[in-house]
Amino acid sequence: MTIVQQLPLMFLLCCQTCVLLFLLWRDMAPDVKQWTRAINDEHTCHCNVTGCGDETIQHQKINRKSKRNSLPQYIDERDLRVILGDKTVCGDVALIHAVFVVHSAVGNYPRREIIRQIFRRDPYYKKYTIRLLFLFGQPHEMKLQDNITQEFRQYGDIVQGVFLDTYHNLTYKAVMGMKWISQNCRNVKYIVKMDDDVIVDLHNFFTRLYNTFRSSDHTIICYAMIRAQIFRKGKWGVEKHHLRYYKRYPFSYCSGFAVVMPAAMIPALYKATLTVPFFWIDDIYLFGMVRRMIPKSVLHDSGPMYFDFDGNENLKCFKRAGCKLAFASMGYNKMLYRAWKEKQKHLNN
């Protein structure tokens, strides 16, 4: 067969190769329009403005031939069931000024005790109507459940879900708390979400932050993360198929060690979680991806004036008169109580 006679066959093979390459590119590459729009939005994103970036790229099909990745995973409401929780904790008064919702781990009983002591002994705890709640899931060892049940009977300030209490279930913990508060704490002005290694300066919270915003608006007050780096390894490592063409998150979100929200935002955030595909890092999911589904929602960056997560520097601040910090991550148990005692010295003087 001459070269001229082989030309139709070679042409056919070339066409088949081009088609295969196109199909492969279509399965692997994101939609070009979405990609371009997300990049443009990322460059114009700034604090206190919603609509930054386009996280929908994250939820695209990675491989259309793979059933495992063909559909996004959404939160299953059956995993939000509560096995321990006092539904009357908010029902005995007309108005609760603030509910402090603490994300805690099953084994962190000493931290919970310190936080309880700080709240009970703080003079502002008596001036305002405050509720304190601790959220966690089920322990890996069920023999620990007896300890949790006893703690609940003693204090009544625990809300426990059916999911395992693991780091990768933090989003379930947060959404469970929002659902529970939406159903049982409708007489609240502000909800404060915080971690169990965070000290709350109730004096600064009520004198500097509490009346700054109307409780009816959609403003979330926190330490805002702008163009934060996406880590692919380590504790906060994100899998490569999530936002795989990004080095930084194309939207703003809150650093979740302490977040202040008007009560009106809680039902809205909870309902929005049912429409946004699951992401395991709760700060990014709730206060970035989900928040953007709520019209007119705004992040107000109050850090580092009122929020900070450098434990050693925070302790130095509390030793000085005039420290403005309302929420400070302290790192370990003894620093929590020590920082509170330092602040009380200035208040007493």
Question: How would you summarize the topology of this molecule?
Answer:
Layout: H1 3-28, H2 32-44, E1 82-84, E2 96-103, H3 109-121, H4 123-127, E3 130-138, H5 145-155, E4 158-164, H6 170-184, E5 188-195, E6 198-200, H7 202-209, E7 219-225, E8 253-262, H8 265-273, H9 282-290, E9 298-301, E10 307-308, H10 311-319, E11 327-329, H11 333-348
Parallel strand pairs: 2-3, 2-5, 3-4, 7-9, 10-11
Antiparallel strand pairs: 1-4, 5-8, 6-11, 7-8
Description:
This protein is of the alpha/beta class and 349 residues long. 38% of the residues lie in helices and 18% in strands. The chain has helices spanning 3-28, 32-44, 109-121, 123-127, 145-155, 170-184, 202-209, 265-273, 282-290, 311-319, 333-348, and strands spanning 82-84, 96-103, 130-138, 158-164, 188-195, 198-200, 219-225, 253-262, 298-301, 307-308, 327-329. An eight-stranded mixed sheet has the order 1-4-3-2-5-8-7-9, sandwiched between helices. Strands 6-11-10 form a three-stranded mixed sheet, with helices on one face. Strand 10 (307-308), helix 10 (311-319) and strand 11 form a beta-alpha-beta unit. Mean pLDDT is 80; it is low at 23-71.
